[in-house]
Amino acid sequence: MFEKIVVGIDGSETSENALRLACDLAQKYHSKIHLVHTPQPNTVAFALGAAAGYHAVTTMPSYDEVQKAGEKILNSSMAVAKDCGQVIWQTHMERGDPADQIIACAELCGADLIVTGRRGLGSVGSIVLGSTTQRVNHLAKCACLSVV
Q1: Cα 44 from Cα 110, distance rounded (Å)
Q2: C-beta of residue 78 within 8 angstroms of C-beta of residue 88
Q3: What pTM was estimated for this model as a whole?
């Protein structure tokens, strides 16, 4: 039923929940999982500020810091998948809008399903349903599953 599953991750608890559910589906349907992470400087700045003190929030991270943070999220997600008994088929980490990158990956690999968390680390403006998830659900050409 689902040969290829794209999972959008951002390091949040809801994106980990989405990944765990995708792993369950992948086990049942023998699916290949593609992880998509689009590092956002604002999110990295917030994370650095939480770890280093309030002064770090006012300074935007460098390109290298954003890349390192993205790689850390991908590695952590691959460890979650391994813990669930799954191997990630492919990872994608590009700059740009997260929804656009998730949709592009799904179209490129011919995904049957996109799985995203309902509320991740995105803007505070979309309280009930994350703006990335809303956009993916609206524009995707395959099935979408939003996970709490």
Answers
A1: 30
A2: yes
A3: 0.86
pLDDT tens digits for range 37-90: 999 887 776 555 555 455 545 577 888 988 999 999 999 999 999 999 999 999
Domain count, the chain: 1
- 42: containing domain: 4-147
CATH number of the domain within which 19 lies: 3.40.50.620
Tokens of residue 108, six digits: 């490129």
Angstrom distance (rounded) from CA 43 to CA 1? 35
Nearest to 65 by CA among 46, 92, 84: 46
Residue found under tokens 């996109």: 114
Q: How far is CA 148 from the centre of its chain?
A: 13
Rounded CA-CA distance 10/16 in Å is 8
Which stretches of the chain are DSSP H helices? 13-29, 41-52, 63-83, 98-109, 131-139
Other CB atoms within a 10 A radius of the CB of residue 8 amount to 30
Q: In this predicted structure, what is the pLDDT of residue 14?
A: 94
Q: How far apart are CA 15 and CA 146, in angstroms?
A: 10
Q: DSSP code of 128? A: S
